[in-house]
Amino acid sequence: MLEIKNLHANVADKPILKGLNLDIAPGEVHAIMGPNGTGKSTLASTLAGRNGYEVTQGHVVFEDADLLDMEPDERARAGVFLAFQYPVEIPGVTTINFMKSAINARRKAEGEGSIKASEFMAQMKKNTELVEIKQEFMKRSVNVGFSGGEKKRNEIF
Q: Where are the domains of the chain?
């Protein structure tokens, strides 16, 4: 699922990751732990493709695709992205309207038209089931009154 081989990465021309190797098989859960300054955030930012993080050597394969050849938005669509520690609440904006606006913005950037209502609703039903969010949450303001776990699932959603 994720294979990192001899990964070297710099931030502002300063080497941070120096030959990292990691293999994570499907279904495995790993925790990256260590003191401040050991490269945990650099690894996450590098994998997500954030600006300012330069890979100087190594390979990263995610689900049989070369992650380093993918743009950040492609990585996010594949499931590799950074999540906020404390997801923001947006009072007055329902989750369903927020999601529809986000989908249509992405479609517009890709030269596509707006999503059809039936297609959007089918996609919402499928994705709420996938991340185990109750469908009634879609009518609530973004993250308002959600528990910490609900906010994280909503962010992944």
A: 2-78, 90-156
DSSP SS3 for 157: coil
pTM (predicted TM-score): 0.70
DSSP run (H or E) holding 62: strand 53-62
pLDDT tens track for 19-39:
999 999 999 999 999 999 999
DSSP classification of residue 87: P
Identify the H or E element spanning 20. strand 14-24
Give the tens place of pLDDT for each residue, 33-74: 999 999 999 999 999 999 999 999 999 999 999 999 999 999
What's the CA gap between 108 and 114, in Å, rounded? 7
Distance, in Å, from the CA atom of 52 to the CA atom of 151, rounded to the nearest integer, reads 28
- CATH code, 2-78: 3.40.50.300
**Other residues' Cβ atoms within 10 Å of the Cβ of residue 57:** 13
Mean model confidence pLDDT for the chain: 92
| CB crowding 110-148: b at 16 or more within 10 Å, else e | eeeeebeeeebeeebeeebeeeebeeebbebbbbeebee
**For residue 18, which of 48, 38, 44 has the smallest C-alpha distance?**
38
